[in-house]
Structures are given as C-alpha cells and as structure tokens.
Design a protein that fits this description.
Helices cover about 20% and strands about 25% of the residues. By secondary structure, it is of the alpha+beta class. The strands form four sheets. The chain has a four-stranded mixed beta sheet, with no helix packed on it. It has a three-stranded antiparallel beta sheet with strand order 3-9-8, with no helix packed on it. The longest helix is centred in the C-terminal third of the chain and has 11 residues, at about 150-160. The radius of gyration is 16 Å and the shape is globular. It binds zinc ion.
Length: about 180
C-alpha cells in the first residue's frame, strides 16, 4: 500500500482530513470504501449516518478511515468521480484540509446539515443536489463530480441531454482513468 496522501486531525470543524504531501489538480486522493447499506440501515446508525456517502437512490457507503472524516465545504478543493474516488479540483498544499461539497452526493429528501465552513459563498445549510442554485448544479456536473445516479435524475428532470459541450480537465482525467 502506498502511503496515505492525507492524515486525520482535529480542526475547526472537528475531525478532518489534511494533505500530507502536495496534491496536484486532478490527482486521486483516496477511495471511499466500506460496506454498502440501505437508507433504513443508515437511519439505524444514528449520529454516525453523517459518515455515509450516498451512491444510489437506496445505497450508501458506510465509509472507512481516512475518507470517513472528510468534511464538507461550500467552496471545495476536492470532488468525487466514479461515485467513490476523491480527486483534487486544484492544487492542494501540505497541511491544507481536503473537503468536498456534500450536496454533490445527496438526493434523498432526508438529511440536511448546518454549514459552518465559513467560506464567502457558504450556503449555511447543506441540502440535496436538486435544491442547489441551477448555476452551481451545472458547474458541478461539468466538473464531473456529481454522483452518477444524481446526474441521471438531473438529466431526466431537465428532459433533455445537458451533457457539457467541452470536456473539462477533470472529465478528461476521469476518461483517462477509465471512469
Ligand atoms: Zn458552507
């Protein structure tokens, strides 16, 4: 096993993951592994349901460390491709916290979270993907960092193919990696 690119430490938002080494834009950081649970099983986890990541309408990964402690940000420096792989959206310096936007994985009409990320564009509450501003939905979809089942739902709702015209660098990276 190669050395982990991140380490876990306590920060302003509780436990989080931080870069151990410089991470390039488009580079993979970690995979969200763990048992796959139904929504009903997730509810039985209580507080720990915050550590699950939705990968289907009724499928969630009960994530293992270190991915388990990845915090949310409304201005993320990382995103999920291929439903489980966390990649850098820009250069991440050693010691910097690695965060993704939880709304890119949420479509369940159940769980919300008050946000204290403190970024200028903070939305104050983390909601399902379909409740994000339309421009932000399009931005994340073009980056290729929205869970595939949510993209399918979004396209069905839009009633037309809204595939981006130009492949972004992240989409090109995904293709190169076989996603
Ligand atoms: Zn926020």
């Amino acid at each position: 096993m190669p050395q982990e690119k991140v380490f876990i430490r306590h920060g302003a938002l509780g436990r989080g993951i931080y870069a151990r080494i410089p991470i390039r834009a488009g580079e993979s950081i970690l995979t969200f592994d763990g048992p796959v649970l139904s929504h009903e099983q997730v509810l039985s986890l209580g507080e720990a349901q915050a550590y699950t990541i939705q990968i289907g309408p009724d499928e969630y990964v009960d994530t293992t460390q270190p991915g388990r402690y990845t915090n949310h940000s409304c201005e993320p420096n990382a995103g999920i491709v291929g439903d489980r792989l966390l990649i850098a959206l820009r250069h991440i310096a050693p010691g910097e916290e690695v965060q993704f936007d939880y709304s890119t994985t949420m479509s369940e009409d159940h769980w919300t979270m008050e946000c204290r990320c403190g970024r200028p564009s903070c939305r104050n509450v983390v909601l399902d993907f379909d409740l994000l501003p339309a421009s932000l939905q399009t931005h994340y979809i073009r980056l290729g960092i929205v869970q595939s089942f949510i993209v399918r739902e979004w396209r069905a709702k839009a009633g037309r193919d809204r595939r981006p015209n130009r492949a972004s660098p992240i989409v090109q990276f995904r293709r190169a990696e076989g996603f």
